[in-house]
Amino acid sequence: MTIRQLFSRLRRDDTGATAIEFALLSPALILMMIGVLQVGMAMQNYNALRGLSADVARYTMVQYQTGNTISNSQIETWAENHALGAPYLLHQDRVNAVVTTPGTQRVTGATELQLVISYQMDSFLGFAGIEFPFITYTRPIFLLDED
Known about the structure:
Elements: H1 3-12, H2 17-65, H3 72-82, E1 95-100, E2 110-120, E3 134-144
Antiparallel strand pairs: 1-2, 2-3
Helix pairs in contact: 2-3
Domain TadE-like: 16-58
Transmembrane segments: 20-43
Organism: Erythrobacter westpacificensis
C-alpha cells in the first residue's frame, strides 16, 4: 500500500468522529449540568434562609409576648445556632445574622426590628472560576407594645 492510498483511506474513514466530537463537547455539557445543580442548591439555600427568618421572627415574638427581654445580639446568636440544625443544615462559618432597630418605626404602637440573614453558598463551579456570592434575606419583625 502506498502512502497516497493510506491518506486516501484515512480521509474517508469516519469511525472515530463521534468520539472526537464528544471529547470536544463534553466539557461544556458537564459544566452546564453542574451549573443546574448549583442553581438548585442556591434555591434550597434561599428557601432555608426564608424559613429560618420565619423561625427567628416567631421565636422573637413568643419571647416578647411571654415577657422575656432579649437583646438583638441574643436574637442573632439564636438565629445562627438554629441555622445549623435540621431542616436548614447551613454551615456555621458561612451564616451571619444581624438584627437592628430602625431609627424610624413604621407602625405606631409596635417595635420594629430588622433581621438580615446572609449565607455564602458552596460553589461546585470553583474549578471554572465561578464563585457564588452571598445570599441575603431581609425581614422586618414587629413586636406589639402592650401598655
